[in-house]
Write a structure and sequence with these properties.
By secondary structure, this protein is mostly helical. Helix content is about 70%, strand content about 5%. The two termini are about 30 Å apart.
Length: about 100
Amino acid sequence: MKRWWWVLIGYLPLAYWAVQLWMLDHYSATEGCVVNEGFAKGCIWQGEDIGEWLYGLGMSVSWGFIFVTLPVTAGWTLIVLGVTAYRFLRAPASERI
């Protein structure tokens, strides 16, 4: 049971960026703000300009996805494939599929 916690901890970055992506989508859609990777554009929300915040959030989502989520996913995939291959090769030939 203890080892499943490590799997859950490994997927925490995925959940973190999913929440950020939802926040970015929510604010840009409901307030009519335009968010791009070129520069921050003004976006007034409840009397304050959150354009710079949305720009930073967008950069965090995009670069975070590239540099954290993809390597974590690739790493977990390689670990699963390695363990599967190891178990397959250790099994007797009569038990292999």
